[in-house]
Amino acid sequence: MAGDPKPISAAARHALEQELADLRDERRLVAGTLQDATDVGDQADQADQLRRADQLDRLDRRIRDITERLRQAEAAGPPSTDVVGVGSTVTVRFPDGVQETLQIGEAAEAFDQNLVTSDSPLGRALLGRHAGDSVHFDTPDGPSSAEVVSIGDVQSA
């Protein structure tokens, strides 16, 4: 992860901490199934051992990535409430009058319907904006726009 440390929202921090705990539990289970190399029998056993060792490597990489991301987020401090950035909570109003509160994140989570990635068209348009700014972005249905209502805590409609 290059550049300055980026803050993350409380919800994103919680999700990463939960994923980290789950990965550590999974790692303990996988590590417990690995056998001493001298105890490995036939080729099928050896192939199973290699698969588990690969799985352990994958888990270790993800654990390192999450740990580093959480460390960077801690160094960055809380998300700004002055300008939209990664980790910001942003309330926007669309041309039809609908207001939505969104999180600007680094990666999409299937379960989080209010997360907008920083590299999506809307996410890119919102980065660096202030409350009151209008943004324009492309959608699959054509050009669209929104107004930044607030940055930070959820605003009541």
Task: Provide structural commentary.
The mean pLDDT is 83. The chain has 157 residues and is of the alpha+beta class. The chain is elongated, with a radius of gyration of 21 Å. Helices cover 41% and strands 20% of the residues. The protein has a 5-stranded mixed beta sheet. The chain has 2 domains: 10-76; 89-151, Transcription elongation factor, GreA/GreB, C-terminal domain (Chitinase A, domain 3, Roll), CATH 3.10.50.30. The longest helix has 34 residues, at 43-76.
Task: Summarize, please.
By secondary structure, this protein is α+β, with helices and mostly antiparallel strands. The protein has helices at 10-33, 43-76, 121-126, and strands at 89-93, 99-105, 115-117, 134-139, 142-151.
Task: Provide keyphrases for this structure.
2 domains, Chitinase A, domain 3, elongated, 5-stranded mixed β-sheet, alpha+beta, 41% helix, 20% strand, 157 residues
Write the layout of secondary structure elements.
Blueprint: H1 10-33, H2 43-76, E1 89-93, E2 99-105, E3 115-117, H3 121-126, E4 134-139, E5 142-151
Parallel strand pairs: 2-3
Antiparallel strand pairs: 1-2, 1-5, 4-5
Organism: Streptomyces filipinensis
GO molecular function, one term: RNA polymerase binding
Domain Transcription elongation factor GreA/GreB C-terminal: 80-151
Give the termini distance in whole angstroms: 36 Å
Give, in spatial order, the strands making up the sheet with the most strands.
Answer: 3-2-1-5-4
Task: Count the DSSP helices.
Answer: 3
Report the uncertain regions: none
Can you give the helix content as a percent range? 40-55%
Cα radius of gyration in angstroms: 21 Å
Instruction: Please give the largest β-sheet.
Output: 5 strands, mixed
Number of domains: 2
Order of helices and strands: HHEEEHEE
Estimate the global geometry from the Cα principal axes.
Answer: elongated
Q: Return the average pLDDT rounded to an integer.
A: 83
The fraction of residues in strands falls at 15-25%
By DSSP, the count of extended strands is 5
Question: Structural class of the helices, strands and pairings?
Answer: alpha+beta
Pfam families: GreA_GreB, GreA_GreB_N
Keywords: Elongation factor, Protein biosynthesis, Transcription, Transcription regulation
Domain Transcription elongation factor GreA/GreB C-terminal: 80-151
Protein name: Transcription elongation factor GreA
